[in-house]
Amino acid sequence: MDNPATDVRRVVRELCCPEDANEMLAAVDKYFTEDATFVYPLLNTPPAAGRDGVKAAYKMLRVLSYGQRFDFHAVAFDRITSDNKGVERMKGFLDCTEHLKFSFIPLPDRVNPTFHLRFLTRVDLVKGSDDKWRIEKQEDSLPSDYASTGLHVLPFDREISNLVKWCMGSATLVVGGTLAKFNLFN
Length: 186
Hints:
Nuclear Transport Factor 2, Chain: A; 36% helix
């Protein structure tokens, strides 16, 4: 990438959206360092595997899903730093929703449901000798708020989650407010 702040949305689409897995793997070669790692909610690539491990992870994601589209809610990058060897580094953050279908659901495409998964992604970038920024580590996380994840399995599961959180919040308000009012447990 020449300018991560403007290029990263296109790079994500190049990495995740091609129907042809070979195009995805070519994008991994283009945008990841040789020693890259990938941390995902369901897997971590072994650090010793480097870019080959990242390629294996992307290949499995292509095998298990298709039809990816992305909505980006926020993209931010930290300032550029240099390590003790003079190598420039930068950290980035993406808040995005991935829309996809799962290949293992035995339904025709027209009735296969589209899932909408919210990801919080952190990338560690390093600037190469060719002045291109490459991903050294990609870490995808799901939001801790279940209702925000997009992982809805049961009818009304989002509402049930919100009700439980509302009850816990109300109980916290009563108990915490009482403890604060009477200056207990300081």
